[in-house]
Design a protein that fits this description.
49% of the residues lie in helices and 19% in strands. By secondary structure, the chain is α+β, with helices and mostly antiparallel strands. The two termini are 19 Å apart.
């Protein structure tokens, strides 16, 4: 499978600068970190090596790895952890990626087909997100174009004197919120009247249907509503959406991110990540970047603005429709010590499974 990350020339160059002994010591440090999350010292590394090497010799190599920016000593600990740059090097150049076994493939595809046939494609995407969350013990994420679902309810909610929130609730339970600027001095009754007018006509209609109906019945609406409320109705339906707003984000398993978090600073990092997931914009932007090419994309820690403070990673892969157009991405968000070797092929296979749902010819 294809993976995209940092500059491959720089990665290859750095690999060439490490001899076999240095690579093996670095591998043991990273694999120990991914397994335990704890710093590893020279004595433990010496015991893990396949060939006999003294702790003093290991310390000498660790000093070289630290100078190269691949590992660091947290606080005053005698052990070492990989830097984000070191993790990137490991993922790009040293990691041995496994495959998804036949039983797991069959289980993933069966669950997603069942979810898609019983309800909607969005249900299948939510199932994909939940499965990736369970596999990774991180948060499963999916981003895709918003479907024009049939609406069940519309509500105009005032936020402050100059702004309101247009809340669109679909029949499948999905909710979309849009910000709307209000004219000065708008009475509270206008928001209720606009909501009531639309809800009386909403049954069985999509947002596009409702927008066309209001346009066709503009004269009748002018007789039923005052001018300012009629403009509010049109503005609420016509609110434009940008690239991020035109996408829906599905997140499952956020509680997993709190597992194995002990230190106050770790809790602070998770709080920042939860805030990013809540606002969605940055996460959607990152997943849109993952849509921009072939194969799995891996964003590690400080490599991207979103995770520069929370110190997390995301593994994501795009999925395509029947015309081979990229229409979304699936992925996993978690701590930098994710099990990359296992999760990368799972994300890749899940993205392909979603594509097969959209293109029966690939099944």
């Amino acid at each position: 499978m294809a993976m995209r990350g940092s500059d491959p020339f720089k990665t290859t160059q750095r690999l060439g600068e490490l001899n076999e002994r240095s690579r093996e010591i670095f591998r043991q440090i990273v694999e120990s970190y991914l397994a335990t999350g704890e710093p590893v010292g020279s004595r433990n590394v010496a015991r893990l090596l396949p060939v006999a090497l003294s702790p003093a010799s290991v310390r000498s190599v660790m000093a070289e790895l630290e100078e190269a920016g691949l590992i660091f000593a947290p606080h005053t600990s005698a052990g070492r952890l990989p830097t984000h740059q070191g993790l990137r090097f490991f993922v790009d150049a040293l990691m041995e990626i496994g495959d998804v076994d036949r039983e797991e493939r069959m289980r993933i595809e069966a669950q997603m087909r069942s979810a898609a046939s019983s309800r909607t494609f969005e249900t299948a995407l939510a199932e994909a997100s939940a499965m990736l969350s369970g596999i990774s013990r991180g948060a499963g994420v999916v981003v895709t174009a918003k479907s024009d679902s049939r609406l069940r309810h519309v509500e105009f909610v005032r936020l402050d004197p100059g702004r309101a929130l247009v809340v669109l609730v679909a029949e499948d339970g999905s909710v979309e919120n849009r910000l709307l600027d209000l004219p000065p001095g708008l009475p509270a009754s206008a928001l209720a009247e606009a909501s009531n007018y639309l809800n009386a006509r909403i049954s069985g209609r999509t947002l596009g249907d409702l927008r066309r109906l209001v346009e066709e019945q503009r004269a009748a609406m002018a007789r039923e509503l005052d001018e300012i409320t009629a403009r509010l109705v049109e503005s609420g339906l016509a609110t434009s959406v940008g690239q991020q707003e035109a996408r829906q984000l599905i997140v499952r398993g956020q509680a997993n991110l709190l597992e194995n978090v002990h230190a106050a600073e770790d809790l602070d990092r998770m709080r920042l990540l939860f805030e990013d997931l809540e606002t969605q914009t940055d996460v959607v932007d990152l997943l849109i970047r993952a849509e921009g090419g072939e194969g799995v994309r891996i964003f590690i820690g400080a490599e991207n603005r979103l995770f520069s403070l929370s110190g997390s990673s995301i593994i994501a892969a795009p999925f395509r429709d029947g015309q081979q157009r990229v229409v979304g991405a699936v992925g996993v968000i978690g701590p930098t010590r994710l099990n990359y070797a296992r999760i990368v092929p799972m994300v890749d296979f899940t993205a392909r499974a979603v594509s097969r749902l959209l293109d029966p010819g690939l099944r």
